[in-house]
Write a structure and sequence with these properties.
The protein has a domain at about 165-255: Serine Threonine Protein Phosphatase 5, Tetratricopeptide repeat, CATH 1.25.40. It is an all-alpha fold. The radius of gyration is 20 Å and the shape is globular. Helix 5 (about 70-95) crosses helix 7 (about 115-130) and helix 10 packs parallel to helix 12 (about 205-220). It has helices at about 1-15, 20-30, 35-50, 55-65, 70-95, 100-110, 115-130, 130-145, 150-160, 170-180, 185-200, 205-220, 225-240, 245-255.
Length: about 260
């Protein structure tokens, strides 16, 4: 039984799955062996990816008290503490004036700074509003912070709220972006093609799909999709999309071709 739990934990870790199911596995391992340091760190990582920062930090503090020579626990605790500090700042602004928090988050986004503050502020708003739009804003902030564990959980929650690529494209495109960041190109491509099948005029999905096809060429030597990538970018350009993202994509494609 314990070996089976360990195998499940390893499989989930390999797929960057740090959600509720993984948390249950780590907690079962710790019930069988409370001294399992790797399971304790895994549990703390799941809690942080689920936004349960206080619980995650408490687990890590206990582990560091018992095993002060564990460098992973110390590193994870430092990261979690930064989120807790950012959460305190965001809570203060929300209590003072929700608009003040929103404005501060928008400034931080434009200036590309305070990423953990962006995450924790967006998390407060997402928990308050419980909307797909708020969840996607949180997921985007998590991606900027390179918190891919948390972003995956966030977008999966939004998919559970509305699993339709046609009526909820922003969630599916956001999820594909996280999967792309994780190197899961086939999974990302599958989602983007579903969005495109539902709406051929979704050029944001098309630009993202072009990026995945270029990833395949650059990282895996598969150049078979470059012609399609150029077509997707051309369709977006013809539709009037002329921002920095598509210009950068064209530049990247030229360098690959």
């Amino acid at each position: 039984m314990e070996d089976d739990l360990q195998r499940r934990a390893q499989a989930m870790s390999d797929h960057n799955d740090w959600g509720e199911a993984a948390l249950a596995v780590y907690e079962s391992i710790l019930q069988a062996d409370p001294t399992d340091e790797a399971a304790a760190v895994g549990r703390a990582r799941c809690l942080r990816a689920l936004g349960r920062m206080e619980e995650s930090f408490a687990v890590l503090v206990t582990l560091m008290t018992e095993r002060p020579d564990n460098p992973v626990a110390r590193s994870q605790a430092t990261k979690t503490k930064r989120h807790l500090d950012a959460k305190t700042r965001a809570e203060h602004l929300l209590a003072k004036d929700p608009q003040a928090l929103f404005d501060a988050l928008e400034r931080a986004k434009r200036q590309e700074r305070d990423h953990k503050f962006q995450v924790e502020g967006r998390r407060l708003l997402a928990r308050r509003d419980r909307t797909i739009e708020a969840a996607c804003a949180l997921g985007a902030a998590q991606r900027r912070d390179r918190d891919l564990d948390g972003a995956l959980n966030t977008y999966r929650w939004a998919v559970e709220k509305n699993a339709s690529p046609e009526s909820n494209p922003m969630t599916h495109v956001g999820l594909s972006g996280v999967l792309r960041d994780l190197g899961r190109l086939a999974d990302a491509e599958k989602i983007l093609r579903e969005v495109r099948a539902a709406n051929r005029s979704d050029h944001f999905a098309g630009i993202t799909l072009a990026a995945v096809l270029m990833d395949r060429a650059e990282h895996r030597g598969d150049r078979s999709g470059l012609g399609e990538a150029r077509q997707l970018l051309g369709a977006a350009w013809a539709a009037g999309i002329r921002d920095g993202v598509i210009k950068a994509a064209y530049g990247r494609l030229k360098s690959i071709e």
